[in-house]
Amino acid sequence: MTLVVTVGSANWVLQVSDRRFTYPPGRSAPAGADEKNKEVVIHAADADLAVAFTGLAEIGPLSTGDWLLEAISRAKGAESGFDACIDAVRVAADAAYAGSTVPWNPPRPLTFIFAGFQKNGRQPQIATVSNCQSIHFRTVEVSRRFGTYSVSNQPHPYHVAGATPAVAQDSRPKIRGVARRTRDCSAVADLVVAEVRRAAKHAKHGKFIGESCMSICISRDGGIHSR
């Protein structure tokens, strides 16, 4: 599990994730399990993308991050663009869950969150590939089939995935309010990281969230900053 918060404005899109990997009962967490990266950057033909995931830490022999990059590379998604990257991950995830790569029954939840600006785009593009979300981003019964959902067409899009019950009710208006008032992505990143760490202290669901975080900010002009 994890917590991934994605928020956008007319000038940038920000993605923040915690870095804790959790493992099923009976399997002890390896050293460094609280310092794993759950985000990658993809340079597609028509966009720079930050992509994060929540759910499975591994797919077959690969970490989910490495599997994600391999799925996009194998389908030449980055050469085609934003939409092709999303579709490549959906098709590969369907294949993995249909075969023996992900054998668990019932299937485990998995969501990928894509965020970036398409070239000459005025608004950030945010989309998910998930087997446990509805079109309205409500949690639904986990499936072996994956769908693609758009979070765009909003001036200040906001999306949370993962251990969402741990997120305080006032986090959304607080983060979106700051995003509306400032052009400084780093100020919003500081606030989102603070809210993730606040969620990590949740009495029931905080155990799935680490306090160490990674953030990636992609500017409309093509700049990329991570920390």
Q: Can you describe what's shown?
A:
By secondary structure, the protein is an alpha+beta fold. The chain has a single domain (3-226), classed as Aminohydrolase, N-terminal nucleophile (Ntn) domain (Glutamine Phosphoribosylpyrophosphate, subunit 1, domain 1, 4-Layer Sandwich), CATH 3.60.20. Helices cover 26% and strands 28% of the residues. The chain has 5 helices and 12 strands. The strands form 3 sheets. Strands 10-1-2-11-12 form a 5-stranded antiparallel beta sheet, with helices on one face. A 5-stranded antiparallel beta sheet has the order 3-4-7-8-9, with helices on one face.
What fold name goes in the CATH topology slot? Glutamine Phosphoribosylpyrophosphate, subunit 1, domain 1
**Subunit organisation of the chains:** single chain
What does the average pLDDT come to? 87
Domain module count? 1
Number of helices: 5
Provide the β-strand percentage band.
25-35%
The first-level CATH class is given as Alpha Beta
Question: Helices and strands, in N-to-C order?
Answer: EEEEEEHHHEEEEHHEE
Measured as a percent range, the helix fraction is 25-40%
Annotated CATH architecture: 4-Layer Sandwich
Radius of gyration over C-alpha positions, nearest whole angstrom: 16 Å
Keyword list:
globular; alpha+beta; Glutamine Phosphoribosylpyrophosphate, subunit 1, domain 1; 5 helices; five-stranded antiparallel sheet; 12 strands; 227 residues
